[in-house]
Specification:
With 188 residues, this protein is α+β, with helices and mostly antiparallel strands. 22% of the residues lie in helices and 27% in strands. It has four helices and eleven strands. Strands 1-3-2-4-5-11 form a six-stranded antiparallel β-sheet. β2 and β3 form a beta hairpin. The longest helix has 15 residues.
Length: 188
């Protein structure tokens, strides 16, 4: 039997915990069907945390480069909204973004998940071992150790964050890498 506890103070949240939704968390691995996300980064100065949903795919970021700059944006939710708006205007197909926006899981409604930013992924990288351990405890594994971000620079390149000895780099938007839907964890 897993222990569930309510957390209302961001300082009590630890990377690798299982987010069960509605402010409930667990240190012990529940069934995958009970997990909203795995806490991947705690951002106390912003009063929020980022959770990785327990699903991943390898997809192209897009098929035609999208000319929008989101590098200064630190919130994946905001950057994803900006990219979504521009993709609709330019009628560009964005498989990685669509995978995140279409993700539905425990306590995650369609349109809630997003592509994390470079900043959010770099924070997750600092605790990659705790994240990987929790993902494995759910019976999952990442298919790709380099994840797309929602951070696009002036040269039409998107930031990809390497995990597990993979390099972090700028990559052309039309390449394929790992995509992991992220969600914001806000505490009351």
């Amino acid at each position: 039997m897993i222990t569930r506890f309510k957390i209302s103070n961001i300082a009590e949240l630890k990377v690798g915990m299982f987010d069960l939704g509605n402010g409930l968390f667990s240190d012990c691995a529940p069934k995958k069907g009970e997990v909203r996300s795995v806490v991947a980064a705690v951002l106390p100065h912003e009063g929020r945390a980022i959770g990785f949903c327990p699903e991943q795919s390898v997809l192209p970021w897009c098929y035609t480069a999208l000319g929008v700059v989101t590098m200064p944006i630190t919130s994946g939710k905001e950057a994803t909204a900006c990219i979504t708006k521009m993709a609709a205007v330019r009628q560009v197909t964005m498989p990685a973004l669509e995978f995140c926006l279409n993700y539905q899981g425990v306590g995650v409604t369609r349109g809630e998940a997003f592509l994390p930013t470079r900043t959010e992924l770099q924070q997750a990288y600092l605790n990659e071992n705790a994240i990987y351990k929790s993902i494995r405890l759910l019976g999952e594994r990442w298919l790709e150790n380099t994840l797309f971000s929602s951070s696009i620079d002036n040269d039409y390149c998107v930031w990809v964050q390497g995990f597990k000895n993979q390099y972090s780099q700028r990559a052309y938007q039309c390449r394929a890498f790992g995509v992991c839907p992220a969600v914001e964890i806000k505490l009351a």
